[in-house]
Design goal:
The protein is built from eleven helices and 42 strands. A hairpin with a 5-residue loop joins strand 33 and strand 34 (457-463).
């Protein structure tokens, strides 16, 4: 009774803060201008035009001559002397923005983001509110559960409306390409792992043993089309489960079958039971990758197409893990009998050139205490390579990516972008120019045109105007860094304050955590960061940072996660927050909360298990609380195989009895990403230990339940109840 009264009084006292938080998406949308350039290159390859937003409902057309940087502006393409029809290209879908008016049958949307930038996804609910459902990274795909009639909005990260779509009876696949949304045509099937060599002399196929697949049953308690619950059974392979062990078999034109000996690929990590092959142009060999289960041995193998004899082209080993899911890129140079291979063998992600015939490295192409982040293009004729790298300057955030070029012999390295920020580039059709857009968490985008030959600046195309965003009550994040647990490595993150910060007061701190080893997550691009800003508007100081165990800072930094997911960078996080409080006296170190989802949900609860001396409140959404319960590929990548005591030591279920503080567990009953039982087993363990906690399963919802309107509101209320005086 007292708890309910306290909650009611607390929410009444902070009603204005809640209103400010809930209205932030609406108040700040469509408030950043001149932030995006989508070039339309003319046939001569030297000129291009683009349409840029100049205000809430205004725009202009710009024509650029790349040879000398001259610029012409006009209200229409016709005024620029260009065919007007170019401006009237529209997508296959035309939906006006309006609230969701009906809820029909269950359906889905698959988005393919072909833009060079991330976008945000919002559901427009029945009241017309824009409810954020996360983002879609540049160059990636995302599936979204929806219902027929539900309206969805896609915006740029700074609020520009890009497209609107309404859910249909059937699942739709939609391409985000800068022209709105285009209905995807039937895509051609990708070639499978089996196929004939170029001369047709043989066929290679995978054969594998049958192994039982683990299945998980999801219960939908309240289906839309009836009263009785429904069940859905899905294949869901977990760490330690048996896997098929495929063997390659060569079938000759006369029907003879030649098994490819498995001595060098005896235990592949292959969930599908198939191995992909690449044929040599002369058909004498074919090549395939072998990722040994446990992720400590990776080979590229060559097999003789006539005899099946196997030899090693590349062999990579690690005492911890090989990041196969993010750093196993290679490129075949068949004309010269070479292979470009990505490796962290010397502590940083770099590129090596191999002689395919001898299986020996010829030399290292890139070098330095910085990582190659992504290879964009290999010019085989010029023997040069274009890539993104970070950590190139000690004076800049080590996560900022820059465009670089290097010759395949390792000479001629050049950094081609210059501005202090995270860079995204798009090349002209002939690759002699590129458009460079860069920003920071605290700086709106600047877009430039540069020459590919030397990175020289041709002209500044646009400097984004965020005046309206700031006027709407949005405060830029403050970038902050402090030393980590080793006393020498800088840990980077951001601090977000309420829009009406009173520096004479003390504010509780809330950390937004995601420590998945596959990436780094503190914002590096200019973005409204609505979730964190909404929490800040409630009267919190919100922080987000990347501790040791996350990606892109070198192998030693990354290896902290090995068989140690529970670490989650907490020793670095606590030092960082404490150091920030020294120069930000309004940060109250006695009132610290934390929230996160998925792997972040696991970490949020772990904060109250191992670090309750520091964190007092946690909201854990759809957490993978026990790595034995979650999907195989992600967890065996970091925790290894076979399943051993390290899994037990990182389990929130096993350690639930150690919990201290106020915990809210949220889970979506229809979660197919993380088995919902991962959360309910934690609930059982907490109950057995006699712990007091809050638990909210959200009906008819999948992964990311705390990002639904109800889940988000519940999270905010819980933080206010337990952290505000």
């Amino acid at each position: 009774m007292k708890t309910i009264l306290f909650l009611s009084m607390g929410l009444s006292a902070f009603a204005a803060d809640f209103q400010a938080a809930l209205s932030l998406p609406r108040r700040t949308e469509n408030s950043v201008f001149r932030d995006r350039v989508k070039a339309n290159w003319l046939p001569d390859g030297k000129r291009f035009w683009y349409r840029v937003q100049t205000g809430p409902g205004t725009h202009e057309f710009v024509l650029i001559d790349a040879t000398n940087g001259t610029r012409r502006e006009a209200a229409s393409l016709k005024a620029l002397g260009l065919p007007q029809q170019e401006a009237t290209k529209t997508s296959a879908l035309k939906v006006e923005l309006h609230p969701t008016r009906r809820t029909g049958e269950e359906s889905g949307l698959k988005f393919i983001n072909k833009l060079g930038e991330d976008v945000d996804l919002f559901w427009i609910n029945e009241g017309g509110e824009h409810v954020r459902y996360g983002g879609i990274r540049a160059g990636t795909e995302r599936e979204q559960h929806t219902f027929e009639g539900h309206v969805w909005l896609i915006t740029s990260r700074t609020g520009e409306h890009l497209a609107v779509v309404e859910g249909a009876a059937q699942v739709q696949t939609l391409i985000i390409d800068g022209k709105g949304l285009t209905q995807a045509k039937n895509e051609p099937k990708k070639p499978g792992p089996a196929g004939k060599a170029p001369d047709g002399s043989c066929r290679v196929a995978s054969e594998a043993r049958e192994v039982p697949k683990r299945q998980v049953t999801i219960v939908e308690s309240t289906p839309k089309d009836g009263l009785q619950p429904k069940t859905k059974v899905i294949d869901y392979i977990k760490p330690g489960d048996p896997l098929p062990k495929p063997q390659l078999v060569i079938t000759q034109t006369d029907g003879r079958k030649i098994p490819v000996p498995r001595d060098l690929y005896e235990n592949p990590f292959a969930e599908s039971g198939k191995l992909d092959v690449t044929r040599a142009p002369d058909s004498r060999e074919f090549y395939f990758d072998y990722n040994q289960r446990g992720h400590q041995l990776y080979r590229i193998l060559a097999a003789n197409a006539q005899t099946g004899a196997v030899r090693v082209v590349v062999e990579e080993t690690s005492k911890t893990f090989i990041h196969y899911s993010g750093k196993s890129w290679c490129h075949w140079l068949h004309g010269s009998g070479e292979l470009i291979w990505m490796s962290e063998r010397e502590g940083w992600c770099h590129l090596w050139l191999y002689d395919v015939k001898t299986g020996q490295p010829k030399h290292q192409i890139t070098k330095g205490q910085w990582p190659v982040r992504e290879v964009l293009h290999v010019d085989e004729a010029k023997r040069e390579l274009w890539f993104l790298a970070s950590g190139l300057s000690a004076k800049e955030d080590p996560y900022h990516q820059h465009l670089c070029r290097v010759n395949l012999d390792g000479s001629g390295f050049q950094q081609l972008t210059a501005g202090n920020g995270n860079h995204r580039v798009e090349f002209s059709p002939k690759r002699d120019f590129f458009i460079d857009s860069y920003s920071r968490a605290d700086q709106a985008p600047i877009t430039e045109l540069r020459r590919s030959g030397d990175g020289g600046l041709v002209c500044v195309l646009e400097t984004a105007d965020a005046t309206a965003l700031l006027a709407a009550g949005w405060t830029p994040p403050e970038r902050f860094f402090a030393k980590g647990r080793d006393g020498k490595t800088d840990i980077h993150g951001v601090i977000i304050t309420p829009s009406k910060l009173d520096p004479t007061k003390k504010y509780p701190i809330v950390e937004d955590i995601y420590a998945g080893p596959h990436g780094a997550f503190a914002p590096k691009d200019f973005d409204r960061q609505l979730r964190m800003h909404q929490v800040a508007e409630l009267g919190f100081i919100v922080v987000k940072l990347d501790g040791m165990g996350t990606n892109h800072r070198g192998k030693a930094f990354h290896d902290v996660c090995w068989k140690n997911i529970k670490d989650a960078g907490f020793p670095d996080r606590k030092l960082w927050i404490a150091e920030a409080a020294k120069t930000h006296p309004w940060m109250d170190l006695k009132r610290i909360g934390i929230y996160g989802g998925s792997a972040g949900g696991q970490s949020a609860m772990r904060a109250l298990i191992d670090h309750h001396d520091f964190y007092k409140v946690a909201v854990a959404d759809c957490g993978c609380h026990d790595n034995r319960m979650d999907k195989i590929w992600w967890n065996e990548q970091w925790m290894g195989w076979p399943v051993d005591d390290s899994y037990i030591k990182s389990s929130n279920k096993e350690d639930a009895h150690k919990l201290r503080g106020s915990l809210l567990l949220i889970v979506g009953e229809l979660d197919t990403n993380v088995d919902p039982a991962s959360t309910t087993q934690v609930v059982a363990a907490l109950q057995k230990a006699g712990k007091t906690f809050d638990f909210m399963p959200i009906a008819s919802t999948g992964h990311g339940a705390a990002e639904t309107p109800y889940g988000s509101k519940l999270r905010m209320e819980f933080l206010v109840r337990h952290l505000k005086p």
